[in-house]
Design goal:
About 75% of the residues lie in helices and about 0% in strands. The chain is an all-alpha fold.
């Protein structure tokens, strides 16, 4: 038994390459520098959050090597932008790179443009059955994610240039969380397309992201939402740094699952028609292009499992935050009520799949309808209902 455990531990250490450890050391050094340099802006809880986020990024980089290059590029471009500012927000209109590329607003506009282009290339690749179009779509999606995260990091820095008392992590209003939603959803797609070879789901996922980006652009231009505003009193808490990201990891996973369900339903419908007509399944337009129904069913299940786990964590964290801010864990606020509806919906979905063995079209339709319910919880509550969580009205 001891020999077996020793062998297992040795194999775990050998599993990581020199590149893995160099990546880990670089993150630890960067995290240590941030902790030392910015510690006067953070309380003890926020310092713990930073340490765990560094650890989480290391694990992500080890599990998904492609994410290492994203982390390195985001750090490099963000530091370049911060260096160009020289603690003067007015330089955003004076320095070429800031004005047209690396200020938060410019970077987020680039993100939006690249997501639109990625969507076009994905659909072109699917309709023409062209791997070149799909390859370009994936590269543009990665570039959009890069600029989106740079925009978020630089916006965080810019908020402190507006005023030390104004500075905050950029996940506090509808504009900022829409950017976060687009990035998380895109990352889920990029991870699953690489791991499970389902690149052809890209057109559907990027279509949803493009719709979100269209809203983001309208909200930014039409309502001036890009302007950095001070935090509302209830949001001035370290809880926001863990509750909101966990929530949107859940939303991103559910959105990816919902769009994979659209691809599943389209292919299943076409295959049914081909079987009735007696034609070969390879003759169908989508049947010959989209991943197998088994693969789609599997990634829908995996994405919902991940989303449900993070959404559960976010709900618990939200209850703890509510107790800290308002003195009670639960108040049946509209946002809380609809979050519970979303949680119960996906809990029932997982129950029917795991316990009852349900598969196929029924669960795909359910995943799609569940996404609509989740969308109302995310956006509709802000539009039509009011309550303690009304921080992002249109």
């Amino acid at each position: 038994m001891r020999f077996s455990e020793s062998y297992h531990n040795t194999s775990c250490l050998q599993r990581h390459t020199l590149g893995d450890w160099m990546f880990a050391v670089a993150l630890i050094v960067g995290g240590g520098f941030s902790l030392n340099y910015y510690k006067h802006f953070m309380n003890g809880y926020e310092q713990i959050i930073l340490i765990f986020k560094v650890y989480g990024c290391i694990l992500l980089g080890w599990h998904w090597p492609a994410s290492r290059f994203l982390v390195a590029a985001v750090a490099a471009l963000s530091l370049l932008s911060i260096g160009l500012y020289q603690a003067d927000l007015g330089r955003a209109d004076q320095i070429f790179l800031l004005k047209y590329l690396l200020s938060s607003q410019s970077a987020i506009l680039w993100m939006s443009t690249l997501f639109f282009l990625s969507t076009l290339f994905f659909w072109g690749g699917l309709l023409r059955s062209s791997s070149v179009g799909e390859d370009i779509g994936v590269m543009l999606c990665w570039a959009a994610v890069l600029f989106g995260f740079v925009g978020m990091m630089v916006r965080w820095y810019e908020s402190y240039l507006v005023g030390v008392d104004v500075g905050h992590i950029p996940i506090s209003n509808l504009y900022e969380v829409f950017v976060l939603f687009c990035l998380v959803t895109a990352l889920f797609y990029l991870y699953y397309e690489r791991r499970y070879k389902i690149r052809q789901v890209g057109p559907f996922v990027l279509f949803l992201i493009s719709v979100s980006v269209s809203f983001l652009v309208w909200y930014s231009v039409g309502r001036g939402a890009y302007e950095i505003q001070p935090l509302l009193p209830a949001l001035q808490s370290w809880w926001m740094k863990i509750h909101v990201p966990a929530n949107f990891i859940g939303y991103g996973a559910f959105s990816f699952a919902g769009m994979a369900a659209v691809a599943y339903l389209i292919k299943a419908r076409e295959q049914k028609k081909l079987l009735i007509s007696g034609a070969s399944l390879d003759c169908g337009f989508f049947s010959s292009r989209l991943p197998s129904l088994v693969s789609l069913d599997d990634v829908i299940y995996k994405a919902i499992t991940v989303g449900f786990s993070f959404f559960t964590i976010a709900t618990i964290l939200g209850a703890l935050w509510a107790a800290d801010a308002w003195g009670g864990y639960w108040s049946w606020d509209p946002k809380e009520t609809w979050a519970l509806i979303v949680w119960l919906n996906y809990a029932a979905w997982l129950h029917m799949r795991l316990i009852k063995g349900l598969r196929g079209v029924v669960l795909a339709w359910w995943a799609l309808m569940a996404l609509l319910v989740t969308t109302f919880s995310f956006l509709g509550v802000n539009m039509f209902l009011s309550g303690l969580h009304s921080y992002g009205q249109l």
